[in-house]
Predict the 3D structure of the following.
Amino acid sequence: MKARMVIRCEVAVLCLLQVVLALPRPDFSGTWVMDQNRSFSNPPGLEQTLMVVHANDQIKVETKLKTQQQGEQTINETYTLDGKETEFAPPGAQPGAKGKRKATWLPDGRGAVIEDVVTSDSPNGPVTRKTTRKWTLSPDGHTLTVDYYFDDQIGSFEAKRVFVKK
């Protein structure tokens, strides 16, 4: 009797595990506008819109930024969520800057993590900056949160940008 109960429990756990693993991953596609009231630690007057095309493990992003210091900018990037490190040309970086990127799904599939390491030259030698972005989508699919973590020779910094679907 005890053996039957153990087997039933194991079968139940395996069934639940299959259901959890079968949950669909989020689709980040759409036009997203930053909600300044719910975002923090960003440059003064920052306005940002993301146009995202997401297919399978590839995310293409056109970012429109507007700041008081740099005016308007458009940045195009592609993330491949396969966990492989690739080289990329850092947008807006100094000439000669080199970047390495790794993007992957979060373990539970509810979001993605993009890690960039950019190395550039300075008068004092090479400078390395690591940027980590964690993308998560609300259960209703109408809010995208991007947590930013920056690390360089100056120190560490964190910012959050909350976007609403347009």
